[in-house]
Amino acid sequence: MAEPREDDFLDDIEAAEEEAYGDDMADLDDEAVELDALRAERDQLKDRFMRALADAENARKRADKDRREAENYGGSKLARDMLPVYDNMMRAVDAAQGLGEESAALVEGVQLTMRELLNVFKKHGIEPISPAVGDRFDPKVHQAMFEAPVPETKAGDIIQVAADGFMLHDRLLRPAQVGVSSNPG
Q1: Structural domain boundaries of the chain?
Q2: Distances from the Cα of 157 to the Cα of 101, 123, 145, angstroms
Q3: What is the pTM of this model?
C-alpha cells in the first residue's frame, strides 16, 4: 500500500474545513465585498467633499477680491468725470494770478476750492501726476501730445505740460499730457 502523501493530507483538511465552515466563509466573502463597496463609496464622497470645499474657498477668495476692487476702483467713472473740473480750476488759478489786488479775494477763494478738491481726491486714493519741464518722458504715466525740437534739450525731455495726470490707487486714471523734445542726441 502506498504511503499517504503530505499534499493529500492537506487537501483532506481543506475539504473538511470547507464542509464544516462553508456557510460562514460565504458570509465572510459577502461581507468583504460589501466592505469594499462601502470603502469605494466613502472615497468617492470624500473626494466630492474636498472638491466642494476647494470650490467654496475659491469662491470666497474671488468674492473678497471683487469686493476690494469695487471698493478701490468702483468710483473710477466719477473720478474720471471730475478731472475736467480739476483742469478748469487750474486754468482759473493760472488766469487769476495775473489779476490785480482788487481780485485777491476771488483768487484766494478759487485756490481754497482747488485745495479742497485735491483733499477729496487724496481721501479717495486719487493722486496727481504732475511732471515738470525737463523731466524724462515716461510712457507709463505720460501721453505725448506733440514733439518739437527745442534747443538745449535732449530727445525725450518734457518741454511742456498740457494737463496733469492722475493715478487711482495703483491704476492710471489719466496720463499726464505733455509735449516732448525731439532733438537728436
Answers
A1: 1-73, 74-181
A2: 37, 32, 13
A3: 0.65
Q: Give every strand in the sheet of 171-174, ordered side by side.
A: 126-129, 165-168, 171-174
Q: In the chain, which ranges are continuous DSSP H helix?
A: 6-73, 76-96, 104-123
Give ∠ CA 128-111-144 in degrees, rounded to 5: 35
3-state SS class at 99: coil
pLDDT at 7: 65
Position 22 scores a pLDDT of 60
Three cell numbers, residue 112: 481754497
- To the question of domain 74-181 being in CATH 2.30.22.10, the answer is yes
Handedness of CA 155, 160, 165, 170 (dihedral sign): positive
Q: Cell numbers of 74, please?
A: 468702483
Tell me what pLDDT residue 23 has.
59
Q: Are 128 and 164 in contact (CB under 8 A)?
A: yes
Give the tens place of pLDDT for each residue, 121-172. 999 899 999 999 989 999 999 999 999 888 888 888 999 999 999 999 889 9
